[in-house]
Specification:
single chain; 15 helices; Beta-Lactamase; 5-stranded mixed sheet; Helix Hairpins
């Protein structure tokens, strides 16, 4: 019966192995015979003792040669009929313990694409008891499965990014690499092409969801900032062209247009100032301020400056404070900005309620003393679906109304970053038709630690 090239190669390899083993065994037996003849001739051993010892030693040598050949033959047959086991080649109790400490999911697949090894971080992706599962049934991502299959077919290591849309959209960067182990390379009689196909494959996953979100926020921020600057610039350009044209001899039109241009220029200035302020605050957000500040004094200074705007809108500002109010540790200018932005928002958007209340009181958070700053208006309120996004940059409940009232969309984002720098908390509660309440907790000076 004709044999295949693979079977012929295996037979020739076995013949060479047998010849090599027999030559070594025959040489050993001949050397042993000479030694025992010499020992018998000099009287060191009796004739029968030498003969028995020689026969036993020769038998052991032949038996060892046979057993070695059978073991190697079994290894060769297994290597040519089954894929290499990643668990056998790579896994051990100590090794898996080390892999379990990795923060990123790591998966090792055998030559058939089934999970041979997976660390603890891979459990949320593969599910419980993943060993033995085919990777395509555990991870439903066509780009990832395609890349794994290409590496299994003998391709080089590669990286691919894929997304999981449900239950919550997440993005992963996957690195797929073949594992060339010494155990696989040492097996005789295995065709090199087959060895490349059957080698284990390592899949290392890295969750890049937060990185993608930050990148999206950066793109949105640039787009929003550009849009906010473009609108007043276009308005200014239009009025300049009008003043140069048919309105150049109309004093009344000039006065009206110049007033509008002044408002637009002021809007641009406020936006640029808020952008610069936000940039400075973010740059120092990790540095804790270490000055002792009288928060009531800050509130009084801010409200004094807001009185003309309050009078213009017929809004009463009421400030109350507890007599035993402790001082806080912070940056006076930044805390003034917090009060300014919150009170200004209450005046602009809650003026229909005709009253703004600012209250300061001692409080506690996690057993430590804090000062609670509360700014309340009695205006139209905010629908609850908008509350989680109020501190996002350029987020507005009503963009047109905000721009009409001079808002930049950055005020509450600035407040959030300042409060974070002071290791405080910001909360907002609102009900449509009943007004809005902003609450800020700032650690009291006695418990705050000085900046490093």
């Amino acid at each position: 019966m004709a044999t295949t090239d693979g079977d012929a190669n295996l037979m020739r390899e076995k013949a060479r192995e047998f010849a090599g083993r027999w030559n070594s065994t025959r040489t050993f037996i001949a050397a042993a015979a000479i030694v025992f003849v010499v020992l018998g001739s000099v009287g060191a051993l009796g004739l029968w003792s030498s003969l028995i010892a020689f026969v036993v030693l020769a038998g052991v040598a032949v038996l060892q040669s046979i057993l070695t050949g059978e073991a190697r033959g079994t290894m060769m047959r297994t290597a040519t009929t089954q894929p290499l086991s990643a668990a056998a080649l790579l896994g051990s109790g100590a090794g898996l313990t080390i892999l379990n400490e990795l923060p990123d999911p790591l998966i090792i697949l055998d030559g058939t694409g089934r999970v041979a090894l997976a660390n603890r971080a891979a459990t949320p992706i593969l599910g419980p008891s993943p060993v033995g599962k085919h990777v395509a049934t555990a991870i439903r991502s066509a780009p990832l499965i395609t890349a794994i299959e290409e590496v299994m077919r003998g391709g080089a290591a590669r990286s691919v990014e894929y997304s999981v849309p449900v239950p919550v959209e997440r993005h992963y960067d996957a690195y797929i690499s073949p594992i060339d182990t010494e155990a696989a390379a040492a097996v005789p009689g295995v065709d090199p092409a087959r060895r490349r196909r059957d080698r284990p494959v390592l899949v290392l996953l890295r969750d890049v969801t937060d990185m993608r979100r930050v990148e999206a926020m950066r793109v949105d921020f640039i787009a929003n900032a550009s849009h906010e600057l473009k609108t007043p610039l276009a308005s200014l350009s239009g009025f300049i062209d009008t003043l140069r044209g048919h309105a150049k001899d109309d004093p009344q039109a000039q006065e009206r247009f110049l007033e509008i241009m002044s408002d637009q220029a002021g809007r641009m200035r406020r936006l640029i100032e808020d952008l610069m302020s936000l940039s400075r605050i973010e740059l120092r957000e990790h540095v804790r301020p270490d000055s002792v500040v009288d928060l009531l004094g800050v509130v009084n200074d801010v409200t004094d400056g807001l009185m003309p705007l309050a009078a213009q809108n017929a809004v009463e500002i009421v400030v109350t404070a507890a007599p035993d109010l402790p001082k806080v540790r912070g940056d006076r200018d930044e805390l003034g900005q917090v009060v300014q932005n919150l009170a200004d928002n209450a005046l602009r958007y809650g003026r229909s309620g005709k009253r703004v209340e600012i209250n300061l009181a001692p409080d506690a958070k996690a057993g430590k003393p804090v000062v609670r700053l509360t700014v309340r208006d009695f205006g139209p309120g905010i629908a609850r679906e908008h509350l989680p996004r109020l501190t996002e940059r350029f987020y507005r409940v009503d963009a047109a109304a905000s721009r009409a009232k001079g808002g930049t969309g950055l005020g509450l984002a600035i407040v959030k970053h300042i409060v974070n720098r002071h290791q405080g908390t910001l909360a907002v509660d609102s009900e449509v038709g009943r007004g809005t309440v902003f609450s800020v907790l700032i650690p009291a000076a006695g418990e705050a630690k000085p900046a490093a």
